[in-house]
Write a structure and sequence with these properties.
Helix content: 25-40%
Distance between the termini: 73 Å
Number of helices: 25
Mean pLDDT: 85
Strand content: 5-15%
Largest sheet: 7 strands, mixed
């Protein structure tokens, strides 16, 4: 293509998009794609999904007028181009960095971000609420939900569709079909959408869409020549009406997701219907960057990487997740009862090893954490040992199932709580700081929080052989200490001090570093680090009560934290935890901000010694 350059920072966006010719739009798409690759290669983030939606985002902003029309992005993995086209081009290089813009959608960041995003399958429900409020206020604008086909593996999407189809609101639901969520999509709906995608004969509008367009003289004829389906057309193609039509939606598509002219025509048709409408768009995840097209799984969420080769900087094998997955596989060779379950996060949770070796006992249920927990309960009721590996932030979605389907019957299941604690650049929606507060409200729960790879392996063994719900929580990234000792329930290091510092998980490494710093200032403190953190061992409370002052450091929401529980049982605790949501940023900077770096731990303890002398 040509060499024309667009200075997005100086354009009045998104309004200026509507002034561009189609050829200019195609040039702009190429320029945006290059910028996405350049920025994500430095900052990390979600690459493949964003590369696949460049043309779609341009078309959406040319047909709809944001912020008057409200665009709701499911998850936000696809919304980087949206950020570039809505007042953040100048700051885009700061995405996911300290003080920079978020990698997800934030209404407090821009008026063009209509709704928060982070967890999948929520967009239809949110957009329906917005569209309903518009109708009640006599607002003539539209709500637009943009979701990937991966969202259809989550149950909330069907609840939203069931209610939206029978509504009389201006709602357009755009399904970006690229055959992927994070891992490859699974289930009957994925096959259903795939059937639509693979039909070679696209049909022109003959019934519902055509009638609407005949009454729309300005856009009617041109759109009619491009729109690819209608009720009767798809009934003829599939022999039955589509699922979406049965729910009450008008239907447009499938459209070529990389053809801006066709996208605009289809979206204008949907907009003109003034009724709940489904638009199916076919895209290629990673489009325009061969490494991402070839490996969309690998480039869903990445750290920094080399653009020319696509090689990531981070060695994923050196991580708690990988150690967990390999240890689980190791145990499963000798124990045929063990099953591995994931919610569309096979690679993120290290279960790819298990899948490759024991596929008959590996289950990817899609983005369906609630189903995953109850599915595990069913497996367990028949004598199997299910192990559900899930990010802490996504386990939140299965709270009712943990309580109702597992805990009441004291059913045995293992939950691998990955990304426990602060995760860094993904921000508020992904920080794993709430699993302890909600898990500890559930009876029959055992929680382990290892600080090293060897402890993780031991904890997983104990969880597999345990009873009830056994949660093994571990952080993102690698361990800071290499310790091959075996511990029963907690580590206790006595240095003869009247001050005790308590922590668990990866912060134990920070506390050991803090100890060295405090020693350099002529002071010392004792250290206690539980490995099994819940139920609370009475011996731990006895130890804590014997000290003048106890400091508790933890990557956990303050209310419901272990520190709060310890404080209710002793009278000498000073707790350092997290009050509120944690913004995005570098993990080490965030730990320091919340007083959980080794330096801040040392400063707090030294301050106590200084004040104690005065």
């Amino acid at each position: 293509m040509g060499n024309k350059k667009f200075n997005l920072a100086k354009m009045n966006l998104p309004d200026d998009l509507r002034k561009l010719s189609l050829s200019d739009c195609n040039l702009l798409a190429e320029q945006i794609r290059r910028r996405l690759i350049k920025t994500v290669s430095k900052n990390g983030g979600h690459l493949a999904s964003n590369l696949g939606t460049v043309e779609l985002t341009i078309a959406i902003h040319r047909v709809f007028k944001s912020p008057e029309d409200k665009i709701v992005w499911d998850v936000g993995h696809q919304a980087y181009t949206h950020k570039l086209l809505t007042d953040r081009a100048e700051r885009f290089s700061t995405i996911r960095t300290d003080g920079g813009i978020s990698g997800f959608l934030r209404p407090d960041e821009s008026e063009h971000d209509a709704f928060i995003s982070g967890h999948s399958s929520t967009s239809v429900s949110a957009a329906l609420g917005i569209a309903t409020a518009m109708r009640l206020k006599n607002d003539p604008h539209h709500a637009v939900a943009v979701l990937g086909d991966g969202a259809f593996t989550g149950g909330e999407i069907y609840e939203g569709l069931n209610n939206a189809g029978k509504s009389n609101v201006r709602l357009v639901i755009i399904i970006n079909y690229n055959e992927m969520s994070i891992s490859e999509n699974v289930g009957a709906v994925a096959k259903y959408l795939s059937t639509m995608r693979t039909k070679e004969s696209y049909m022109k509008t003959k019934t519902a869409v055509e009638k609407v367009l005949d009454k729309t003289p300005v856009v009617g004829k041109p759109i009619k020549n491009v729109v690819r389906s209608s009720k009767n057309a798809f009934k003829e193609m599939l022999l039955h009406s589509t699922m979406f039509e049965d729910l009450g939606f008008e239907f447009v598509g499938p459209l070529d997701g990389h053809n801006i002219a066709e996208l605009e025509a289809g979206l204008k048709a949907a907009k003109s219907m003034d009724a709940p409408t489904i638009v199916v768009v076919n895209t290629i995840k990673g489009h325009g960057y061969p490494p991402a097209e070839a490996n969309p799984n690998k480039y869903h969420g990445v750290g920094s990487f080399e653009i020319s080769t696509g090689n990531p900087d981070v060695v994923a094998a050196d991580s708690f997740s990988s150690v967990f997955g390999k240890k689980l596989l190791d145990m499963s060779y000798d124990n045929e009862k063990i099953c591995a379950v994931t919610a569309a996060m096979e690679f993120g949770t290290g279960l790819q090893h298990f899948h490759a070796a024991l596929p008959e006992r590996f289950f990817d249920v899609g983005i369906a954490e609630e189903h995953a927990v109850t599915f595990c309960a069913g497996l367990s009721s028949m004598g199997m040992i299910p192990v559900f590996a899930v990010y802490s932030t996504f386990l939140q979605r299965g709270y009712d199932q943990l309580l109702h389907d597992l805990a009441i019957m004291n059913t045995h299941a293992v939950i691998g709580v990955d990304r426990a604690g602060i995760v860094g650049e993904d921000g508020e929606t992904h920080q794993g700081i709430f699993d302890i507060p909600f898990l500890t409200t559930i009876p029959n729960v055992n929680i382990y929080s290892p600080s090293s790879y060897s402890e993780l392996e031991e904890c997983l063994e104990r969880a597999i052989n345990g009873e009830g719900i056994c949660a093994v929580r571990y952080p993102r990234g690698s361990d800071k200490i290499r310790d091959d000792e075996k511990y029963v329930d907690f580590k206790y290091q006595k240095n003869g001090s009247r001050v005790l510092a308590v922590t668990y998980g990866r912060l134990y490494g920070n506390l050991l570093e803090a100890e060295k710093s405090v020693e350099e200032h002529g002071e010392d403190f004792d250290i206690l680090s539980p490995v099994k953190i819940f139920p609370i061992d009475e011996k731990i409370i006895e130890v804590m009560k014997s000290y003048d002052r106890v400091f508790v450091f933890e990557e956990c929401y303050k209310y419901g934290s272990m520190g709060e529980k310890y404080s209710s049982l002793t009278q000498n605790c000073e707790c350092v935890s997290i009050d509120g949501f944690v913004r995005h940023g570098r993990m080490d900077n965030l730990l320091d901000e919340y007083g959980l770096s080794s330096q801040k731990m040392a400063e707090r303890i030294l301050n106590y010694f200084e004040n104690d002398k005065t």
